[in-house]
Amino acid sequence: MTNRQIKSLTCIAVVMAAGLGVLAPSAAAEAGRRVHPGDSIQDAVNYARPGDIITVMPGTYYENVLITKRLTLRGFGARTVIKPPVTAVAPVAPVAPPAPGASTAPVAPGAAKAPTAATAPSGRALACSQADTGICVMGTAEQPVVGVDIRSLTVSGFKRNGIWASYTDRLSVQRVISEKNGTWGIAQERSTRGLFRDNTARDNVESGLFIANTVDREGGATDTLGAVIRRNTLTGNRIGVTVRRVRNLSVYGNTLTGNCGGIFVVGDEGEPGAGDMTIRNNRIHENNKFCKGNTRLPDIQGVGIVLTGAEQTVVRSNDIRGNVGASPLSGGILLFKSFVGATNTDNVIRDNVVRDNKPADLANQGTGTGNQFVNNRCASSVPAGMC
User: Fold this and answer.
1) In a domain, 231, yes or no
2) How confident is the prediction for the chain on average, in pLDDT?
3) Which of 371, 277, 280 is CA-nearest to residue 320?
4) Structural domain boundaries enclosing 260
5) In angstroms, rounded to a whole number, what is the distance separating the alpha carbons of residues 173 and 94?
6) Residue 40 domain-assigned?
7) Helix or strand run (H / E) with residue 21
8) Under a CB-based contact definition with an 8 Å cutoff, are residues 328 and 303 in contact?
9) 213 is a domain residue
10) Are 109 and 90 within 8 A, CB to CB?
11) Are 263 and 291 in contact, with CB atoms under 8 Å apart?
12) Rounded to whole angstroms, how far apart are CA atoms 372 and 293?
């Protein structure tokens, strides 16, 4: 091979390498999309492929977002804020991603978009895609949404919920601030293996975090397959954490203060019963805000942990102090009589520090059997003798 041929091949190799270097970042970027102030988060979600990462840059976005596919939606914490639209908006239909090989060039702001397919939302998805809720993750009974990851966003001021999820599996919500919403801060139903970690839910009208079998009908408790509520901070809500008619989950390492009530475990006469869960290592202090009662519950004030209609639940190693009120629910840890006849059975309350709660640190008002109070550090109990 002559020197001229060698030089020619070297030049070709350099050009090819340079070309690959130019193309590589573009190809990598296809897995991730950025949304800037003035852009639509929903548009980015609609055109994302399953598995895409959508990064929402710092700014305030006046919209609500419907997610129906596996993706990651992430922002910059308190600097990325989603608020209700200023004016009413039409429902947004999720669209299919571009077909393989189709152009994925950015669409200029204001330019018409031509999705390859669209499916109109219905039922709760329709309500969610309007201005009632900040972020909705919606699957179906036949095809739950798997693996959605929402993190480092602020969702504020929505008429109903900050984040709402239905028919999901392995939903992850982390480092989210959900505040001043009209019902729940972060809520989930009909779902399994959810992870709710390092979030802040504050000043929501109902629960900061709410996990249920379903919200529109009664029925036996469903198995969450190990859902986790961990290291969240819950302040200024009606109730910090509510788990209703579900089984097999853990609530641990959370901080709850300044709510009307701390943690509620709620079951009813349905089978299977709510329970088979662990509530441990939570800090539950001075939840003394007053909330007026409703048709389901009496006034709520000064509530640490309440179990009503629960079974096989372990409440251990929690620090519960200074929860004071005059409500029938007030006190440190309370096994409360159910309004629908369900009993608390086979629950274990042990190794908790329960101090300065009024009217009592520990109370058992129910008629259930098999409940144990063991090695708790407390000063008062009803009936006496449990400290």
Assistant:
1) yes
2) 85
3) 280
4) 64-91+116-382
5) 21
6) no
7) helix 3-29
8) no
9) yes
10) no
11) no
12) 29
pTM of the complete model: 0.84
**Residue written as token pair 């640490």:** 304
The single-letter code of the amino acid at 252 is Y
pLDDT digit string (tens) for 275-291?
999 999 999 999 999 99
Q: Which two tokens stand for residue 261?
A: 């009530």
The single-letter DSSP state of residue 64 is -
Closest residue by Cα to residue 238 from 282, 306, 289, 180: 289
113 in Cβ contact with 107 (< 8 Å)? yes
Tokens of 62: 């006046």
CA angle 210, 134, 247 (to 5 degrees): 20
**Cβ within 8 Å of residue 19, ≥6 positions away:** none
Half-sphere exposure of 65 (CA within 13 A, CB side): 33
Provide the number of structural domains found in the chain.
1
84: left (phi over 0), alpha (psi -120 to 50) or beta: beta
Q: What is the DSSP letter of 27?
A: H
Determine the Cα–Cα distance for residues 188 and 78; give it in Å rounded to an integer.
Answer: 23
DSSP, residue by residue, 84-110: --SS-------BPPPPTTS--PPPPTT
Before 94, cis peptide (omega within 30)?
A: no
| Residue among 135, 132, 142, 151 nearest 169 (CA) | 142
Q: Helices then strands (H, E): number in the chain?
A: 3, 37
Give just the sign of the alpha carbon dihedral 353, 358, 361, 362.
Answer: negative
Give the separation between CA 156 and CA 141, rounded to whole angstroms: 29
Alpha carbon distances (Å) from 302 to 131, 262, 281, 334, 381: 34, 8, 19, 11, 16
Q: Judge whether 333 and 382 are in contact, CB under 8 Å.
A: no
- The Cα–Cα gap between 308 and 285 comes to 21
Q: What angle do CA 247, 251, 253 make, to 5 degrees?
A: 170
Q: Which residues contact 336 (CB under 8 A, 6 or more apart)?
A: 306, 307, 308, 328, 329, 344, 365, 366
- pLDDT at res. 123: 55
Question: 252-309, pLDDT tens digit by residue?
Answer: 999 999 999 999 999 987 778 889 999 999 999 999 999 999 887 899 999 999 999 9
In a domain, 57, yes or no: no
Residue 238 to residue 290: CA distance in whole angstroms: 8
